[in-house]
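Record DUF4837 family protein, 349 aa.
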Amino acid sequence: MKLKINILAPIIILAVFLFSCNNDSTNLRKKITGKAGEMVVVISKNAWEGSPGEAVRATLSQPQIALPQEEPLFDVIDVPHEAFKDIFKSTRNIVQTNISQNVETEGVTFTDDVWAYPQATVQIKAKTSDRFVELFNENKDKILSYFLAAERERVTMNYKKTYEKSVFNILNKDFGVTMHVPPGFRVMEQKKDFLWVQYDSPEIFQGIVIYTYPFVSDSAFTVNYQLPIRDSLLKANVPGPSDGSYMSTETRVDQIFNVTKHNGNYAAEMRGLWRVANDFMGGPYIALSELDMENQRVINAFGFVYAPSKDKRNLLRQVEAMIYSLKLNNQKENDTLNKQSDFEVNIEG
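=>
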């Protein structure tokens, strides 16, 4: 198998933007509109050009981390209050501002599905521009997390409805986990405790590598521990397009590493760039490592994108949604062990 685009593979449309619901009430709602990553900010022209707009742009339009070319977290469109009509009200992500001395209660409110489904909206009310900036900056992390989670959940919802059953079944049977990837993903390499699946089109590919190793200490949740293991497996199992080439981590840039929890289990997320040694391919990646305490193992999902001359933010977010759909079949047993354990993760890499 070669790490390259298979131009003979069928082109599968990954339905990221259209959603339906599982019950009658949500089926009757208007569906969200616009592309993934789009956001409308309802704000006056003066406020947009002043300090409130600067604060909003600094957070919502900041560069997405760990991409080879700069892309914003969100594609922000400012809309004056008087122009906020039906055409904008079905947008997937909306920030509504109200800066006026007439505001009775200042604050930040998060509301789902106000005009469409599945929609994320934030309302920010303040008496003055200075107070708006203060409120926004106090809550900017929550605002970002809210919108990013909404973007991921929309993709995840779609993949749960229609997914590649062959990949799902292999992971369920041989790895004791489930994961939803869209139809069109195919197995590129399968060995004991190792699986590489990939979707190809003439212009892009998206891949996921799943592998496990024993959990021996909390050092398993550090960059210095994880990186050599991953690169060793990639070198052995994911060849590049030319003789002697293979996939590896781009170590000339720092990895972005964060210890967290996933489904209640200790986990770590790593982001950065990958490259093909002895060749010229590369792109962004996101990796999730999760502790299966009952089986004393760490299960890893490494997702990557290759899309030369194309924007990669949304393609990577699709892969992110796939790997974050990972669930342990023995989660109930792990829940019990997690409650009993006083295990603490050493976050120093």
